[in-house]
Structures are given as structure tokens and as C-alpha cells.
Amino acid sequence: MAVSTPPFDGPIILFDAECVLCSANAQFVLKHDATGHFRLASMQGEVGSALYRAHGMDPNDPVSILVVNGDTVRQDSDAVLSIYEGLGYPWRLLGVFRLVPAILRDPVYRWIARNRYRLFGKRAECWLAPPAYRDRIL
């Protein structure tokens, strides 16, 4: 299923804007992505929910972060690592965790994802990016 998104050549991070942890990560990415490598789309928004559904996931029950870059989709711990690798030095050093097989990394990611609202909280309203970053939000 083709999803119409604004023209952008680069990875799109699909995140849960109601999740305090996920929103904090989105803010971290915006702050540290000096080159504007990433765009972000909330799973609760039109573009984000369409992309989430296009990749076989239910945006009303977000179980994983996705990083979509053209035909390549990363999820779970692989998505998180690809984000930090894309931020450049020093964050790319976290890529060393790729030495740990995904079969060991993903269960940890999934446990945190399943319990994120209980552990970190849930916003009553979706997080909105400050005006300076609005051009990077789809």
C-alpha cells in the first residue's frame, strides 16, 4: 500500500506521541540531529498512522517504534540503534550493541515497550514539537 507523504528523502521515525519516554526520545532526536537527517511522525497523526498501517501494524495499539527509509523498515531494537547511529558521533557509538544478537536485544525492547506507560507515563494529549522543529514533523 502506497502512503502519500510530503517529499523527503531520508528516514522517518514513527513514534508514540502519547508515551512520555517516546516523546522524550523524539525531543532528543530533534535536539541532536544537527543535519536534519530524520523526520518524525507520531503514530496518532495522519501520516504516522498511515505508515504504521502500511507496515502491518495497528496505530491504536503501538507495539514498536518504526524507522522507515524508502523500502527499508526497521523496528524494535534495530530501529532504536539505527536512530542513534544516524545521529552521528558520539551517539553512533551505541551501534556497538549490534554485537548483541537481536534475539537477545528485542525481548528487552519489547518488555519496555509493553510497559512504557506504566514505567514512564502516558500524556493526556500528544506531544507537539516546538515551532523551531515543526518542519521536521510529518
Molecular structure report:
The structure is a single chain. It contains five helices and four strands, in the order E-H-E-H-E-E-H-H-H. The two termini are 18 Å apart. The chain is α+β, with helices and mostly antiparallel strands. The protein has a four-stranded mixed sheet, with helices on both faces. The chain has one domain (12-122). A hairpin with a 2-residue loop joins strand 3 and strand 4 (72-75).
List the helices and strands and how they pair.
Layout: E1 12-15, H1 20-32, E2 39-42, H2 46-54, E3 66-69, E4 72-75, H3 76-86, H4 102-114, H5 116-120
Parallel strand pairs: 1-2
Antiparallel strand pairs: 1-3, 3-4
Can you tell me the overall shape? Answer: globular
State the end-to-end CA separation: 18 Å
Largest sheet: 4 strands, mixed
Secondary-structure class: alpha+beta
**What is the spatial order of strands in the main beta sheet?**
2-1-3-4
Helical content class = 25-40%
**Element order, helices and strands?**
EHEHEEHHH
**pLDDT below 50 for ≥5 consecutive residues: which ranges?**
1-5
Keywords:
138 residues, alpha+beta, four-stranded mixed β-sheet, 4 strands, globular, disordered N terminus
